[in-house]
Amino acid sequence: MVNRKELRPESSPQAAYGAHLRRQRELHGWSQEDLAARMEYSGQHISAVETGRKPPTLPFSRKGDQVLGTASTRDSFEHRWHEIQRGSLLEGFPEYVGYERRSVEIRLFEIGVVPGLLQTPEYAQALATSDVRRGSVTRQQADERVSFLAERQASLARQRPLLVVVLDESCIRRPVGGAEVMDAQLQQLITFAEWPHTMLQVAPFSIGERRSFGLPVSLSTLADRSVVAYTESHLRGFVERESSAVRPLLVRFLQLQAECLSQADSVAMIEQVRKGMA
Q1: How many domains does the chain have?
Q2: Angle at 228 between CA 143 and CA 74, to 5 degrees
Q3: Is the domain of 17 the same as that of 145?
Q4: Containing structural domain, residue 56
Q5: Residues 97 and 37 occupy one common structural domain
Q6: Is residue 142 located within the same domain as residue 71?
Q7: Would the pTM of this model clear 0.90, i.e. be above it?
């Protein structure tokens, strides 16, 4: 035990993860090499995760849960991995995602970029890489955001809520990631509109001041028919549950839909934009 490094789990979520891994390993009476052999990683990798020198990954966490018997428990490594991820997300957003995952209906309005739930992996990666170049986030944080988005998309694909999306025209005209990435993204929007549990509309520039929102908004309806709203500033996200505050947002969303193109006309516009970018 001469080389045993003391851990400080209170210093960061990643350090807490490492301390938890050591604790679970020692409860089984295993050395780092013992655990490494069972998880099919190197002993150096286990040591680096335990001491916080290497961030855990989702596959590592799931393998750890399998080997150490912590899957679907309060001690789940996958759960702790998600907690680390959320540290790179805007304050307030993880709380909203908890509601999103329990929603039976979701209404989204977005400006400038395709909303995350409809993004292709390449489109999402292009946006994340741009954030890294600007210094807004680290590469690790950017990768965590892309991975977290993929988890959200997979969860909703299983859940299949009614998903109503209104895109400002800027979302389909703003090129992201180059011609190939944008072409695939626009095709994804067209495919999305064909699904039986979705609705897609474009709010064209021509509606001018009749556009009822100046910022993106998400409205999630839960099984008990209560509605949760989510909006963002540049600094944080805001979750609103009080019906007196949420109801006006829902009314404005319905008013916006009335000004939008029909789904058929929206798809036609997207196809036209796609051809123009070829």
Answers
A1: 2
A2: 55
A3: no
A4: 9-86
A5: no
A6: no
A7: no
Structure tokens at 251: 């009314």
104 with 82, same domain: the answer is no
Q: Could you list the pLDDT tens digit for every one of the 278 residues in the chain?
A: 445 667 776 666 778 889 999 999 999 999 999 999 999 999 999 999 998 888 888 899 999 999 999 998 877 898 888 777 665 667 678 778 889 989 999 999 999 999 999 999 999 999 999 999 998 878 877 888 898 899 899 989 999 999 999 999 999 999 999 999 999 999 999 999 999 999 999 999 999 999 999 999 999 999 999 999 999 887 778 999 999 999 999 999 999 999 999 999 999 999 999 999 87
